[in-house]
């Protein structure tokens, strides 16, 4: 049985009802997070919750729950569904109000939390994925993790139509990020990714990789790079909560690093896996166990 938390109440997912005038439904007026759970333990939960509150703040929305209440909600769901490896999906919309663009003063917001099955990514992580390059048609506040995802949906569709798994986006020839990932290149052992400004989402996995690079003395810079530099890279990889560190072996039909994941990508994959092992499997106090 699948469950959900709707405004703090644990119910069967099929029983969940949301008003048609909820602004999440009407305007995509909400924020969200996707968190990976490994061995019953959410990875980087605190960072995800901080980003949720930060995204809400950026759209003038107040989330009337504490971090502890949200954590408790996740625990309840993990216990109820007895899941150890899955994703937590958490969304807070501005709530129900008679349809009008103006931000309502009275709406109290709608919180939903539920669990999603984890994707099987091991084979992809071994072989790498194909990508396409396409124009970044999204708005200019990509730093906000909002449920208004139509731009991301349309560019992802471009990838799917060309038998690729991800769309790498550019604005005037500068690579920003993927439709649902951050993009990295390696050239002459220097690792680069777009700076965390309003053109990209500052991924939690991105932050983890930056700190791994720093701790392990990889040369790494948050610096813009062009589509030409992308195509001339020795290695490319993308990062996200659900794809972790994913090698890119093809861009627009052109093979990258001989069509195989490169050595630096491999090393970062393994260091990231060690981080998961350390923080989710080796922990003494299990998150979801009372
Ligand atoms: C547009 C975009 N960029 C980057 C990411 C990666 O972020 P994270 O590592 O926090 O999952 C995501 C994740 O959904 C995303 O949607």
From TrEMBL:
| UniProt EC number | 2.6.1.21
Q: A single GO BP annotation from the record?
A: D-amino acid metabolic process
Query: What residue ranges carry the coiled-coil annotation?
Result: none
Is Transferase one of the keywords?
yes
Subunit composition and interactions: Homodimer.
Show the NCBIfam families listed in the entry.
Answer: D_amino_aminoT
State what protein this is by name.
Answer: D-alanine aminotransferase
This protein's species is Fervidibacillus albus
